[in-house]
Amino acid sequence: MVLEGIHSHDPQARDIAVQYYHAAETTIYDYIARRHPQSAQCVTDFMSTVMSGLSAKAREGHSLEQLCATAALAGEAIKTILKE
């Protein structure tokens, strides 16, 4: 819903959605930065992109199984990045 709101033609709704979107990204960044500061921005960008893509694919009709498989693959990628 936040991603939909970002593209709203209603300026007030769009501004609120953007605030939630940035808050979510900040939360992700802060969580990663406490453990892996050198990878925090890269992983946050990756997560933001994956979440946007999952949202888009859900709207296009991807099944729960497909979405979960993609999320699991993204999780494996993050594990690999954070091991380095």
Q: State the separation between the terminal residues, measured CA to CA.
A: 34 Å
Quaternary state reads single chain
Number of helices: 4
Helix fraction?
over 70%
Q: What profile does the largest beta sheet have?
A: none
Low-confidence stretches: none
The overall pLDDT, averaged over residues, is: 91
Beta-strand residue percentage = under 5%
Count of separate structural domains: 1
Task: Tally the beta strands.
Answer: 0
Structural class by SSE content: mainly alpha
Order of helices and strands: HHHH
Radius of gyration: 14 Å
Write the layout of secondary structure elements.
Blueprint: H1 2-6, H2 11-35, H3 40-60, H4 64-83
Helix pairs in contact: 2-3, 3-4
Structural features:
mainly alpha; 4 helices; 84 residues; 0% strand
Describe the structure.
InterPro entries: Tet_transcr_reg_TetR-rel_C_sf. This is TetR family transcriptional regulator. It is a single chain. This protein has four helices and no strands. The protein has 84 residues and is mainly alpha-helical. The protein is 85% helix and 0% strand. The longest helix has 25 residues, at 11-35. The chain has helices at 2-6, 11-35, 40-60, 64-83. It has one domain (2-83). The model has no long low-confidence stretch (mean pLDDT 91). It is flat.
Question: Quick summary of this structure?
Answer:
By secondary structure, the chain is an all-alpha fold. It has one domain (2-83).
